[in-house]
Design a protein that fits this description.
Blueprint (H helix, E strand, L loop, with lengths): L1 E6 L9 H18 L3 E4 L13 H10 L5 E7 L6 H14 L4 E5 L5 H6 L7 H17 L3 E4 L4 E5 L13 E4 L4 H10 L3 E2 L6 H18 L9 E8 L3 H23 L11 H6 L8 H7 L1 E4 L1 H13 L4 E7 L5 H14 L6
Parallel strand pairs: 1-2, 1-11, 2-3, 3-4, 4-7, 7-8, 9-10, 9-11
Antiparallel strand pairs: 5-6
């Protein structure tokens, strides 16, 4: 079983962006030392929910400080990028990293991220598919031509080309939109299953993808799908809850807050003000700990991950760094997981 890391690069009040990046770098270097397979970072804009607005720049810095761990985007948001520029940046990062880049694409979440780029969210599906087609074409085709609804490319040659052949591995996220799932299947690339889905919904999504892939003749197995979960492991259940509860509550509150905003963003406001409005609708900690996260002792983590493995999941991504959890607890959880959980799946 392969184990990776995932992070939104959260930026709670009271911390600085430089601290967030420094701590993410420390986590990644430790992950490589501990034997994790990969580390994935999200793209978000205008928000404390995550400061990966230029996630490829962040990954370039991380590539320079590591040697073996794979580096992933979970996800890049293609409708917010010019496809030629995106193809150039990803290909260059693949070269810089020594061929360690995995490229995950997704449509994103908050409407205000589209509004800030003056992109109509109603166009997101078409722009999403068109941009991915152009990026993949530029990665692989000399004198590439493309005539689309939003972009045209006239005999472009990508310089530098990506190091991996024929191109970096592509993964595409879907959640509840059937049109997106149909598109993922049509590309012949694996699905990404993110942290926003409950365990059962995530497994159901993966099973639907596998069935549809088989019907199409690609037969992409469950084992190739990265499945990401919020995860915190501690010596006792009580300690795990004490540390994880405020962090996951921050994450859920930020998710609710972001959904309520269509223009501007929450970045210069106070989360406590939103909490005082009573507008929070997200699930409780107890629900999350049972249905969407893995929080507890090493023994509990082993048991819950075995359930995923029993469904065919062989690529498991751990979101250790969520909600501004103090760095000492993130690192301790990473170490304990590597020492007491990962050996059960070798």
């Amino acid at each position: 079983m392969k184990f990776g890391l995932f992070s939104h690069l959260p930026w709670p009040e009271g911390t600085s962006p430089s601290q967030v990046i420094h701590e993410a770098t420390e986590q990644l270097c430790l992950a490589e030392e501990l034997g994790y397979y990969s580390s994935w970072f999200a793209e978000h804009h205008f928000s404390r929910y995550g400061i990966g607005s230029s996630s490829l720049v962040v990954l370039s810095n991380l590539a320079a400080q590591t040697r073996t761990i794979r580096l992933g985007t979970a996800v890049l948001v293609p409708p917010l990028h010019h496809p030629v520029h995106l193809a150039e940046d990803t290909a260059t990062l693949d070269v810089v990293s020594g061929g360690r880049l995995d490229v995950g694409f997704g449509r994103g979440t908050a409407n205000y991220e589209y509004t800030g780029y003056n992109v109509d969210p109603g166009e997101s599906q078409e722009r999403f598919q068109e941009t991915i087609s152009i990026v993949e074409g530029l990665w692989t085709t000399p004198d590439f031509d493309y005539e689309g609804k939003y972009f045209s490319v006239n005999q472009a040659n990508l310089v530098p080309p990506p190091l991996q052949e024929p191109h970096p591995p592509i993964y595409i996220a879907a959640t509840r939109t059937f049109e997106t799932l149909e598109y993922v299947v049509s590309t012949g690339h694996p699905l990404i299953c993110g942290v926003v889905l409950d365990h059962d919904d995530g497994i159901d999504l993966c099973n639907r993808f596998v069935r549809m892939s088989a019907d199409r003749g690609d037969n992409i197995p469950m084992s190739r799908i990265p499945v990401f979960r919020y995860l915190h492991v501690a010596e006792t259940e009580e300690e795990a809850r004490r540390v994880a509860e405020p962090a996951i509550s921050w994450t859920m509150d930020m998710t609710d807050w972001r959904r309520s905003i269509n223009r501007g963003s929450e970045v210069n406001q106070k989360l406590e003000e939103f909490r005082r409005t009573g507008a929070r609708t997200g699930p409780s900690y107890d629900y999350l700990a049972e249905k969407r996260a893995i929080i507890g002792t090493p023994e509990k983590c082993v048991s819950m991950i075995r359930e995923f493995q029993g469904q065919g999941i062989e690529y498991f991504g751990c979101n250790f760094d969520f909600g501004g959890m103090p760095q000492e607890h993130v690192l301790r959880s990473m170490k304990l997981f590597a020492q007491e959980v990962m050996p059960h799946f070798q």
